[in-house]
Design brief:
Zincin-like; 34% helix; binds zinc ion; alpha/beta; 2 domains; disordered N terminus
Length: 262
């Protein structure tokens, strides 16, 4: 696999499969792409990403090694276009959050309802109000504009994500016999986390929308990279030590559509 020395493969949250795929390739970010290859009498390689996925038209004489090198060179563009297509297709389910008092946000697999009140504690307060139901009280005026509400929620959300992720890392690291050094939060739409051999972990704050079991799987996945950097069978055996049911959780994460924060 192609990867920078000392750096784990970043874990793409999904694979992409063209319905008429003839070949497949693993891109640098760990994103698996099954593509349709057509040979033609032409001089250059043509890349096309449609709602079906990636199709490539390549000169007849080009070797697979040369072709794959060109795909890797273009991998960033390919991954981005595939993701855009997927988002366009999934727009029906990826709901937009309404930034108003009383709005509900997907949170840890349940729903969190916003209560805006200037008298709420500084930093906000989260209350569990039932099975999979929370209310978040934030010191923001009930009639505040969307941008202000969103900023208030985002500040709380990032703090809460950092606190919870830290707790989960501390819970699983001893089980896996690894030591992590630092946690960074990220905002990518295509990547849930990454780990480097120096012990630095990156986790996506959107994971806070997911069930705790799914979030935990990502934590375990990244911590496991501190033992095995690639995605070999040896790596998955390490993941299974702390997350025996990881296959189902991985599938669930692949289906997960985070709401749009815009
Ligand atoms: Zn990985």
């Amino acid at each position: 696999m192609l990867q920078a020395p000392g750096q784990a493969l970043l874990w793409g949250s999904q694979d992409f499969q063209h319905p008429a795929a003839t070949h497949q390739i693993l891109l640098q970010d760990g994103i698996r792409v099954a593509y349709k290859l057509e040979r033609a009498a032409r001089r250059s390689i043509g890349f096309q990403v449609s709602e079906h996925g990636l199709s490539i038209r390549a000169p007849r004489g080009l070797s697979m090694a040369q072709l794959e090198a060109s795909i890797h060179e273009k991998s960033r563009w390919i991954a981005q276009k595939l993701q855009e297509q997927r988002e366009r297709a999934g727009q029906v389910q990826a709901q937009r959050i309404a930034w108003v008092d009383g709005a509900a946000l997907p949170f840890l697999g349940g729903l969190l309802t916003l209560h805006l009140n200037l008298a709420a504690p500084r930093g906000g307060s989260l209350l569990a109000v039932g099975e999979g139901a929370w209310s978040l009280h934030l010191p923001v005026a009930a009639n505040a504009g969307a941008a202000q509400v969103r900023a208030g929620v985002a500040a709380w959300w990032l703090r809460h994500a950092r606190g919870l992720f830290t707790e989960r890392l501390q819970h699983y690291a001893p089980q896996l016999g690894v030591q992590w050094r630092s946690l960074r939060l990220s905002n990518a739409r295509t990547r849930w986390g990454s780990a480097k051999s120096d012990g630095s972990i990156m986790l996506n704050w959107r994971l806070l929308h997911c069930r705790l079991a799914v979030l935990d799987y990502v934590v375990v996945h990244e911590l496991s990279h501190l033992r095995v950097m690639d995605h070999s069978p040896r790596f998955w055996a390490v993941v299974a030590e702390a997350s025996p049911g990881y296959a189902a959780l991985r599938a669930e994460l692949r289906e997960h559509a985070s709401p749009l924060w815009a």
